[in-house]
Amino acid sequence: MSQLLALEGLEAGYGPLTVLHGVSFGIAEGERVCLIGRNGVGKSTTLKTIMGLTDYRRGSVAWKGTDVARRSTVDRARMGIGYVPQTRDVFPSLTVEENLIAGLRNRPASEIQHAYQLFPRLQERRNNPGTALSGGEQQMLSVARTLLGNPQLLLLDEPLEGLAPIICEELMHAFDQLSQQHGVAILLVEQKVQEALKFAQRALILDHGAVVHEGPTAELIEDPSVLDRHISVAAVPGQTH
Ligand SMILES: Nc1ncnc2c1ncn2[C@@H]1O[C@H](COP(=O)(O)OP(=O)(O)OP(=O)(O)O)[C@@H](O)[C@H]1O
């Protein structure tokens, strides 16, 4: 598998606040990676920095070998990085279908069918306005709209937040399909650590703006002491989150 994304010594923040203090990791084509850690350690900031949405200080964000750290967010999206923010940016006054059309840019309208295949619920609700959607449906719509940009890497920021277990399962199943059938690489930030570990092949643990552990998820499932040390007792498998 060749490398898609490589971060090296990345430092970034907001105005005078530096949040990332030298983040380094890579993601290969089609790989499933989760980024976990306590609240406020910089997980969302890492995703935002990959997209160019924070104040960049130093380090590199290499996309297929080219440093894009100073490129615009739109450029990065066009190059194949899809970002689904924690805020689920759905246009509330537009219907589901209109929201999807807004994500098409210059791609043919027929591509919306792919979104409906992945999330049949969206087809059922195609004429409903964004305001009439449940949290889970909004999340599906946000993911589906990002996918219309045909990304090779999908950055997902806490997609399961506040959703019922059955909806979480539906979403995780869709992410699995994207990965297995379409080869989309996924970087998942998720507070539901067990779901993240089950889904991903490799885990990164972030603490104080730096990666403090990197390895196969199977190792963390087998030896939860690492999680215990870096995250919290509540994240240990078998205990409720
Ligand atoms: N837009 C912003 N302006 C200023 N500071 C911010 C902004 N967004 C986040 N921060 C700060 O950056 C730090 C890291 O936040 P970030 O959202 O990346 O953490 P996180 O690991 O994703 O946490 P959580 O799991 O709670 O979402 C926090 O101290 C937060 O208050």
Automatic annotation (TrEMBL):
Which GO molecular function annotations are given, in alphabetical order? ATP binding; ATP hydrolysis activity; branched-chain amino acid transmembrane transporter activity
What InterPro entries does its record include? AAA+_ATPase, ABC_transporter-like_ATP-bd, ABC_transporter-like_CS, BCAA_Transport_ATP-bd_LivF, P-loop_NTPase
Q: Which residues form the ABC transporter domain?
A: 5-233
Return one Gene Ontology term, BP aspect.
L-amino acid transport
Can you tell which superkingdom this protein's organism belongs to?
Answer: Bacteria
Statement: the UniProt record of this protein carries the keyword Cell membrane: yes
Query: Is Ion transport a UniProt keyword of this protein?
Result: no
The UniProt keywords, alphabetically, are: Amino-acid transport, ATP-binding, Cell membrane, Membrane, Nucleotide-binding, Transport
The entry sums up its family as follows: Belongs to the ABC transporter superfamily.
Name it: ABC transporter ATP-binding protein
Q: Which organism does this sequence originate in?
A: Pusillimonas minor
